[in-house]
Structure formats: C-alpha cells, structure tokens
Amino acid sequence: MDLESKIENGTAVIGVVGLGYVGLPLMRAFWEAKPGAFGVLGFDVDPTKIETLNRGGNYLKHFGESFVREMSETERFEATADFARLGEADAILVCVPTPLGTHLEPDLSYVEQTADAIAATLRPGQLVVLESTTYPRTTREIMLPRFEARGLKCGKDFFLGYSPEREDPGRKSHSTQTIPKLVGGIDEASGRVAAALYRKAVREVVRVSSAEVAEAAKLLENIYRAVNIALVNEMKVVLSAMDIDIWEVVNAASTKPFGYQAFYPGPGLGGHCIPIDPFYLTWKAREVGMPTRFIELAGQVNHAMPDYVVQRTADALNLRSKAVRGSRILVLGLAYKPDVDDVRESPSFELIEKLRHRGAEVDYNDPHVPATHKMRNYDLEMQSVGLSPEALGGYDCVLIATNHAAYDWQMVADHATLIVDTRNAMKGVTGKREHIVSA
Ligand SMILES: NC(=O)c1ccc[n+]([C@@H]2O[C@H](COP(=O)([O-])OP(=O)(O)OC[C@H]3O[C@@H](n4cnc5c(N)ncnc54)[C@H](O)[C@@H]3O)[C@@H](O)[C@H]2O)c1
Known about the structure:
Layout: H1 3-9, E1 13-17, H2 23-32, E2 39-43, H3 47-54, H4 66-72, E3 77-80, E4 91-94, H5 109-121, E5 127-130, H6 138-148, E6 159-162, E7 181-185, H7 188-201, E8 205-208, H8 211-241, H9 246-253, H10 277-287, H11 293-303, H12 305-319, E9 328-332, H13 347-357, E10 361-365, H14 389-393, E11 397-400, H15 409-415, E12 419-421, E13 436-438
Parallel strand pairs: 1-2, 1-4, 2-3, 4-5, 5-6, 7-8, 9-10, 9-11, 11-12, 12-13
Antiparallel strand pairs: 6-7
Helix pairs in contact: 1-7, 5-6, 8-10, 8-11, 12-13
The site of nicotinamide-adenine-dinucleotide has 28 residues, from helix 5.
C-alpha cells in the first residue's frame, strides 16, 4: 500500500525524533488522530526519557500525569533509542534541538545526526518532515543530499518537507491540534503528502509553496516577537527615567482595536526560541551579503536587560544605604515564563550570576524548579528555598523575575522589605508601595 493510502486509512506508523517540548505533544496529537489509529514510535537519544515514557511516565509536567500513561497503555505507542528502527516508520517527524554555538552560529549538529540516522535506513515510500526551527534552505541543503545519496529520488521514492512547530508550552488556549500548521514540501508531491498527513492530526493545515517559505515564516514569527519585545524594553527604560509606568502605557495602547499588538517588557529573553532563532537568519543572511540590522539591534536591547535590572536593584539598595555586596537577595522565579519548569536561556540565571559577581548572597524560589541542573552556560548548583513571611522578611531585596500564578503576591508585598519587580506582579497588591521598584 502506498503512503498516501496508509495516511488516509490510518495505518501509517508515525515516527517522531526528539521527544521534548515539541516532539512529545506531536506524538500525542498523532496518537489521538481521528479517524485513523496511527501507531506512534518515538525516538530519543536520552535513555532516561525512553525508559520514563515506556513505563507511562511524563517529564513534561504541564501536560499532567495521564498524558503519556494513556498512550503507553495501548499497543500503538512505543519509545526507543534504537535508531535502526527508523525504517519501521512511514512518516518521520524531526523535532531535535537547534541551539546556537558559542559565537551565535547555528548548531545544526542534532539535525545532521538525525538526518544521517534516517538516511541509514531510508526506504522507498517514507516521508520525512523537519520541524526544528532553522534558517531557510536547511531541509534542502542538510537533509536532502543525505537522502538522495542513498540513490532514492525525492518526490518519487520518498518525500521531504518542512513544517515549523509553533508550540507554546504552558499556553492553555491552544494545543498542537488547534495551532494552524504550516507545511511546505521540497517538491510538489512532498508538500501534498506532508499536508495530507498533518490534516489527520491538526485542525488546520496551511500548505505553502515550498519548504523554504515554511522555514522563513517560522523565523519571521519569532523575529517579530524579538523585535517587539526589544521595542517595549527600550520604552521601559526611557519611560522609567520619565517616571512613567510602562505597564500602564502598554495597557492603554492595547485599547486600540486595530494596528497594535501588546508586547510586555521583562528582565531579558528566555526559552529555546526567541533568544536563539533570530540569529539563525542573521547567520544565513551573511551568505547572501545582507545585513540584519533590526535583528541585531533587538538582540542588543534585549541582552542589555539583565544588566539594567541588576543596576536598578543596586540603585534601590543604595537608596536604603545598602551595598549589593553582602546583601541577601531572593530571586522569585527561575523558569523563563510563568507556570512552566522550562529554564532554558532563562534570564534568572544571568541575574543570579551578575548579583553574585557583585558580592550579593543570592537564593531563589521557584515552585516548578526545585533544584538547578547543569546547563550549557550555567551550573549554579542551587536549590529552591522555602517561601514564608519570615523567610521573605530575612532578605534585603526580593527580585521578581517570573510571575508564576502560584505566588501569593500580597504575602510578598506584606513581608518583603524591598521588591524589585520586572513583571508587574505587584499591580494588584494593596497597602504600602514605597518598597516596590519596577525594573
Ligand atoms: N519549546 C518550544 O516552545 C518550541 C516551540 C517551537 C519550536 N521549537 C523548536 O523545536 C525544536 C525542538 O525543541 P524542544 O523545545 O522540543 O527541545 P527539547 O530539548 O525539549 O527536546 C529535544 C529532544 O531531542 C532529543 N535529542 C537530542 N539530540 C537528538 C538526536 N540526535 N536524535 C534524537 N533525539 C535527540 C533530546 O534528548 C530532547 O529530548 C527546536 O528546533 C526548537 O527551536 C521549540
């Protein structure tokens, strides 16, 4: 039976490579797909993840306990670290990391390794779709040659496309199924087959003319966010010097029913996307001799935010006749955004390190992150401290980095002696406000 028939009647086996924030929910979306009963076969290099998944455990806490268990109780689900089994999948969806190297250059080593593994078992009739965020032409330049080297022809023997993941972990209003899915093929047949597959699992598929359009659209979305966040961060600094509250200004501007979309300031960029993806385009643009001034300017403004917050903290302590050196500072929130445990690229790490560098004694609390683990740039070896009225009162300053819903902001306001608020978390509290500084 050909691949399109297998997709149509739901007998195709869907392989997902890279079972993280993107790959695991994608696997679930195909496991749930109607009317088909697709088999889902997950691949990851991390044996702990594979072991956890196969016994029904879930390391993505925001999806809840039953998310993997329900899948693992069926015959149609399996996770493996054995990449020789890639040939069992009819469609292979690639969701591996695409980080930056030390000089802000794209690190495509994970995509390359995966492409090599797929090439080793590629067989006629397979569809491969790259979902990892990357610069335009990655699918064509990195994946296609490896596959065609096997003597198979794209669009005829196998199919290849790109479909960006637009997952926003922790967002309740949307899921993998409800976020429209862009799909672009390396050729006409690949685009058609890939779109047919995603239509089974996702409510709306938007087919574009090429893999390159889909790759570039994803970057545009993230660059748009990075640039607008930089704009509002710059406005924050300027308006603060004029004693005008940026949060009230953004909310006021947001009442315009058209032509304006609200972005909010913060202590710096975090997550696997916004601090990283724009530089994929910057790097690729050099190949065609094009500058990316907006992207780089936005990067400069956003990267300056942790220093700005640290300086605001130092100034606030200074006003109370305290030096940063020797001050006890509690950072609230280690995750880069509310209500998730994702700490990748979180500005909280930079804040902690910079404050420590100035001689402060720093603790953190995060209900979602009980302890730090070794990361690419940081190894803080810290544990989340308890939060109580007495504990809060013991710090010279409480620095709010992430506005988790679990926090009792009134308790923080009532018991902290000084609060530096980067998230407008203090907006609803009552009582005295002289000890609250926005940053
Ligand atoms: N997290 C998001 O919100 C988000 C949103 C949209 C797009 N993306 C993009 O999706 C891609 C994946 O991001 P993520 O957040 O899921 O990352 P992640 O780190 O949560 O997951 C990646 C997984 O891939 C595994 N892995 C690493 N190398 C591998 C290999 N060679 N073969 C198989 N598995 C391998 C890792 O063990 C990990 O489980 C990235 O390109 C990212 O930019 C992420």
